[in-house]
Each structure stands twice: as C-alpha cells, then as structure tokens.
Amino acid sequence: MHDDPGLQPERTDLAWRRTSLTLISAACIFLRWVPHYGWFAGTLVAASLLVALGIALTQRRRYHRAASGIGGAAMTANVRATAAIAGSVVVLAGLGIYTVLFLPLQR
Amino acid sequence: MTGHEETHDSSHAGGEAPDRRGLSAWALGGGTEPDARFTLANERTFLAWIRTSLAMVAGGIAVEAFTSELFAPEIRKTVAVLLLLLGLVTAGGSFFRWLNVERAMRHQAPLPVPLIAPILAAGGAIVAAVLIVFVIGRPA
User: Fold this and answer.
1) Long-range contact list for B13-18, CB < 8 A, 24+ apart?
2) A7, A73, A88, B17: which could form a disulfide with A68 (CB 3.0–4.6 Å)?
C-alpha cells in the first residue's frame, strides 16, 4: 500500500484508536454519575460511547486515505474529522459542567 | 532545491470529494498541500492534545463522582468544574492549534507557538493549588 519506513499511516491509525479508547474510559467514569444524576448522566455515557464508535467505524477510511497520501496522492488535511472530535469533547465537557452546577443530586 | 519545487505543482489539488473540498478550502485558507507526512504528524499531535483534554474531563468527572465523602459539596464542585473547564478549553484550543499549524505549513511559514501549552500548565497548577488549600483547610 505504501513504502514509508516511518510507518506514518499506522502511527496515525493507532493515535486515533488510543483516542477512541480514552473516550470509552471517560464513558466508564461517567457511569458513576448515573446513580446520582439519573438519565442525563446515562445520556453522557451513551454520547461518549457513540463518539468512540464513530471513530472506530471511520478508521479504515482514514487509514487508506493516509496510506495513499504517503504513496504520493494529493492529501488535504482532514478538517471534518478534527473539528468533529474536538467539538464532541467540548460538548461533553460543557454538558458535564452543566450537570455538576445545575442538576440536583438524586438519592 | 528539488524538494522545494515539489510543493508548488499542486496548488489546486485534485482527487478530493467536492463536499470535503469546500470545507477544507474555507478552513485551510489556500496555500499548497504540505508533505502528507507533516499533515499526519500534525493530526497525531492534535490527537495527543485531545487525549490530554479527555484526561482532564475524566478527572473532573471522577472528582465529582468519588470525593463526596472527602470534600464539602462547594469544594468538590469547584474542583470538578475547574477540571472540566480546563478540558473544554484544551479541546477547543487543540483544534485551532491544529488548524493554525496546518495553515502555516500550507504557506511554508514558521509554525505558531502553542498557546494551549501555557494555558494547560497554568490551569493544572491552579487546580493543584486549589486542592492543596482545600486539603490543608479540611477539618481532620
């Protein structure tokens, strides 16, 4: 597929997968909010997992794009992917702040 | 000398899907496609920043979830919100950092200084200082 001894497409693929795994662990810690904040915390768990799943499902396409870019094809930076993941983290953190500040604790 | 000319032959790069091209053209602001290795390295650095911001977010969630028997509610919520806010700012900043680096590379300009590095350092120090004050001031 490509002849880059620096293995750039693989390293980038692994960086995306680590990010996806980090999102899954964030979802696991969000689970600890469910007894206290109810369904809204459950929504945050589901949202984190969905972003992680979204990364996993689009990974193959990104890898092939990177490999053909290393192989010499024109490769424009992936604005949509970076904007989507950064935006997701901003929204998750924002909803977390909203939860901590404004939602009542359930007993 | 020869490596320099290679970057100039693809000023209007073809081979892109039209929808992606519109967004990229608007966001990346002209220039020429940099070496794919640099674009990928920039993407990995962005992802490292995103994981850092996710670690802050996870820390904030954990403080709110696990320290209810340790700290009074105001203290717990202050530290949790500070960490979540730090994660939010780092995540947003990492995207603009990525975009600015990509724009600089497209114009063969020097890379910008990372603004989020001092923000993260100062924010982390503030959270740690707040925690130290609360731990010392906590009734034994």
Assistant:
1) B13/A74, B13/A76, B14/A74, B15/A73, B15/A74, B16/A74, B16/A76
2) A73
What is the Cα Rg of chain B in Å? 21
Classify residue A96 as exposed, middle or buried by CB count within 10 Å of its CB (0-12, 13-18, 19+): buried
Angle in degrees, 0-180, between the axes of helices A39-70 and A8-30, rounded to the nearest 10: 180
Rounded CA-CA distance B126/B130 in Å is 6
**Band (A18; pLDDT cuts 50, 70, 90):** very high
Nearest CB to B15: which of A73, A87, A97? A73
Among residues 16-55 of chain B, which lie with CB inside 8 Å of chain A?
16, 20-21, 23-24, 27-28, 33, 36-37, 39-44, 46-48, 50-51, 53-55
Euclidean distance between CA atoms A30 and A14, whole angstroms? 24
**Spans of all domains in chain A:** 8-102
Q: How many residues does this entry show for chain B?
A: 140
Domain boundaries, chain B: 1-33, 34-137
Tell me the three state secondary structure of residue B12. coil
DSSP state of B17: -
Q: Model confidence over B85-119: pLDDT tens digits?
A: 999 999 999 999 999 999 999 999 999 988 999 99
Can you tell me the ipTM of this complex?
A: 0.93
